[in-house]
Design brief:
By secondary structure, the chain is mainly alpha-helical. 69% of the residues lie in helices and 0% in strands. The chain is built from seven helices and no strands. It has helices spanning 7-34, 43-47, 59-79, 87-110, 114-138, 140-144, 147-166. Helix 1 crosses helix 3 (59-79), helix 4 runs antiparallel to helix 5 (114-138) and helix 5 runs antiparallel to helix 7 (147-166).
Length: 185
């Protein structure tokens, strides 16, 4: 005889997954951000001309923390959806989009590659949209938790495009190699 879990048991299973997925996604995001200094800690970024729509520096860690929490919660919902045939493909696409997401900071802040970072943002948006669509077919709430992420990626794409327009020679402002930035006295 096959037993069906109660709503309380399902909720508890989801919470167990969320306790793992939320910190894991946060850890991945913060690790990626630490691979290269960002914001005012990055001399190259400080020298870039910024567009008028540039948010204050504090907004970026606040936004990404919120987005990573929402992504972790959405991921827990999908992991917990054991009966769905789309669960496997959704998890694979989520993992790929997360890897692309994590590649952005080192490419932009570390290697100073604005055009490559724009390409990454474009690919990321497409992958996040596919993730959203797959999640929506499994759990509507999981997909809705990704809406702010999609909006932020779109905004980041516009922001990055404007940075590119204002700084056509961005890669040459400061050397991309940290060893070249060391001053010998």
């Amino acid at each position: 005889m096959r037993e069906i879990a109660s709503k309380g048991q399902l909720r508890l299973a989801y919470l167990r997954w969320a306790v793992v997925t939320v910190p894991f996604i946060l850890l991945l995001g913060f690790t990626s951000a630490r691979l290269a200094p960002s914001g005012s800690e990055n001399p190259w970024f400080v020298r870039l001309a910024k567009p008028a729509i540039m948010p204050p520096e504090w907004a970026f860690p606040a936004a990404w923390t919120t987005l990573y929490i929402l992504m972790g919660l959405a991921l827990a919902m999908i992991i917990n959806a054991r009966g769905s045939t789309l669960r496997g493909p959704a998890l694979v696409v989520f993992a790929v989009q997360m890897a692309v997401n994590l590649a952005w900071s080192p490419v932009f802040f570390g290697m100073h590659q604005v055009v490559a970072a724009l390409a990454i943002i474009g690919a990321l948006f497409v992958l996040a949209l596919i993730t959203f669509l797959l999640f929506a077919r499994i759990r509507t709430l999981a997909a809705l938790l990704l809406v702010p992420y999609l909006a932020w990626i779109a905004f980041a794409g516009v922001l990055l495009y404007q940075i590119h327009e204002l700084n056509p020679n961005a890669g040459s402002l400061v050397s991309a190699r940290p060893a070249d930035e060391i001053q010998i006295k």
